[in-house]
Amino acid sequence: MGMEGVQLNLISKERLDKMPSMEKLRMILDSVKEGKIVVLESGLTPEEEAKLIELTMLEIDHENFVGIEVESYPHREKSLFSRIFGKKGGRLTVIGPANRLKTLSKQEDLITALVQLGE
Amino acid sequence: MGIILSLKKRFGFIFRWIFKKDKMRIGIYGPPNAGKTTLANRILRDWTGDVIGSASEIPHETRRARLREGVKIEVDGKSLTLDIVDTPGLATKIDFHDFLKFGLTEEEAKRRAKEATEGVIEAIKWLDDLDGILLVMDSTEDPYTQVNVTIVGNIEARNLPLLIVANKIDLPNASPARIKAAFPQHPVVPISALKGLNIDSLYKAMAERFG
């Protein structure tokens, strides 16, 4: 105890695969609203990303919570096989509170971000 | 219901190909201040003579989606009728403090922020009722933003035809090439909606992509 810092939750693909979408999004948003940074090994689908933005907008209170910062890579182009069978998956994703996590630069294969400590 | 929706999303591109509509509903998407309303106004002024709404340097000027039906575009003898939807800018965060520096009072800034959050939700909901997307990006900004990645991902998941508009090429530090490199799988048309630069190429690309 007594050690100050920002909590990072690194969530494995195995755990994410077992969770229904809404449970996943709720867990992300609850953690972020508590000031934690969430790292998802397998990311979110585009539909889940859009839903997460919708939920975030509903919960912005203009006082303590002003939104989220999300870092992830573009989805890889889907093959015909995955188009037909609907197999989809995101890529490594980091989500945090907008007032704590800041993107420094984002390239095709490298994202750098800054986590600010406390208020 | 969920299964039908998911099938519609997945195989929508086949249905659209077989039952080609004579009228396409096109959404103009992008982050705040990319120039969506300026582009919508440019298209309407060129083809109908009026405008859709006011643009502003303050982000989140458009906080309700605006629909203009029956915009007829003619390119190389080919005619195309579009319904144009100008959507509010998409964002993952909206802080009312950002509006204060534009001279808004705290009350105005908070109201704008609240309306902006509702506008983002409305823009996302519109995705399910469109036949094609014009995604507007600011060529002077980094294109690898989460908003761009999320919009492109959702358009790809719905198999909707997409045209990326690299806007603001009239500015000295514009780099449409950076946008092309970020999203190589989609056509990119560099323009200035404000100055009307290269706008004919956009209409041509729209006729090819949405026609």
Written account of the structure:
The complex is a heterodimer of chains A (119) and B (211). In chain A, 33% of the residues lie in helices and 24% in strands. Chain A has 119 residues and is an alpha+beta fold. Chain A has a single domain, classed as Translation Initiation Factor IF3. Chain A has helices at 13-18, 21-33, 46-59, 80-85, and strands at residues 8-11, 37-40, 68-72, 93-97, 101-106, 111-115. Chain B has a single domain (21-210), classed as P-loop containing nucleotide triphosphate hydrolases (Rossmann fold, 3-Layer(aba) Sandwich). Chain B has a 6-stranded mixed beta sheet. In chain B, α6 (176-182) links the parallel β5 (162-167) and β6 (188-190). The interface between A and B is medium-sized, with 35 and 34 residues.
Q: Keywords for this structure?
A:
heterodimer, A: 119 residues, alpha+beta, Translation Initiation Factor IF3, four-stranded mixed β-sheet, B: 211 residues, alpha/beta, Rossmann fold, six-stranded mixed β-sheet, globular
CATH topology of chain A: Translation Initiation Factor IF3
Strand percentage of chain B lies at 15-25%
Most extensive contact: A-B, 35 and 34 residues
Share of helical residues of chain A: 25-40%
Kindly provide the radius of gyration of chain B, computed on alpha-carbon positions and rounded to a whole number of angstroms: 17 Å
